[in-house]
Amino acid sequence: MSNANSKVNTLKYILAVVIYGTIGPILRFINLPSELVVFSRGVIGTLSILVFMKILGRKVDLKAIKSNLRPLILSGFFLGLNWVFLFAAYVRISVAVASLLNYTAPIMVVIIAPFLYKERIRPIKAICIITAFIGVVLTSGIVSVGIGNVDLIGITLPVLAALAFVGIVICNKSLKGIDSYNKAIVQLAASAVTVLPYVMYNNRGKSIEFDLRSTFLVLLLGAVHTGVAYCLYFESLGALSVQSIAVLGYLEPVVSVLGSVFVLHQSLDLYGWIGAILIIFSSAASELIGPKKTIN
């Protein structure tokens, strides 16, 4: 690959993760139930990617989808849960704390790997796990304000979102012979179907008003933060090393934290900042340990 193409793919990936990182701050300006936003994002994202596939001359591979249907639907189910838990957390606690706790997912994958894949936890990765746990405790606010003053439901929601993301990772490991675009359209559609019953149940008898700002931002989240960002992400993924993906991927929580602090004025105390550094450092380090390769 030429140096120019490498730079283009790196920029595409950076742009994708930066776009992802702005979701939390944007959600705070939407006056709609978070689960309805999740459903809308799944539907609009699916349609957007289908449009992009048409523009790029790609076709829906029904054979590949059929052969991977079960793990695709299951991963879409976990994707829907991840969004529901995370978006609900954004409403209850600061975007910074919710984003950071959600980004304990790589550490969770390291913890379950010995049980599912018979992978031994190396001492350095054990240190990463302990470091991330300390970061979670510090970021949660338990140390600074005491457990009685912490929104326990609020800090539990992003942890559940991280667990759901682990489910996505496990399901994706069993996928074979399907490209990222076809995988995305099924997963996004399945995520929308997953949350639809919850949307209907939780909003029964309620009057939902779609103001102009909220409608525009929901369309933005679906078309840009899902459709465009997913396409940028998938286009660049196969050309970057795992190390580059691991390091650059952590721009997303950094952007979320900065958006929380400077846009929403949700400040982190000293313990929070130390916890943020520990979570990002330990999670990135756990992914960086291993042979250099690219994602196919």
Summary of the model, kept short:
This protein has 296 residues and is mainly α.
What does this structure look like?
The model is unreliable at 291-296 (pLDDT under 50). The chain has one domain. The protein contains 15 helices and no strands. The protein starts with a helix and ends in an 8-residue tail after the last helix. The chain has 296 residues and is mostly helical.
From the spread of the alpha carbons, the general shape counts as globular
Number of domains: 1
N-to-C terminal Cα separation, in Å? Answer: 14 Å
Rg for CA atoms: 19 Å
Q: Work out the number of β strands.
A: 0
In helices, the fraction of residues equals over 70%
**What's the order of the H and E elements?**
HHHHHHHHHHHHHHH
Structure annotation, total helices: 15
Portion of residues in beta strands equals under 5%
Q: Please tell me the overall pLDDT.
A: 86
Low-confidence stretches: 291-296
Please describe the biggest sheet, giving its number of strands, its sense, and whether it closes into a barrel.
Answer: none
**Helix-strand category:** mainly alpha
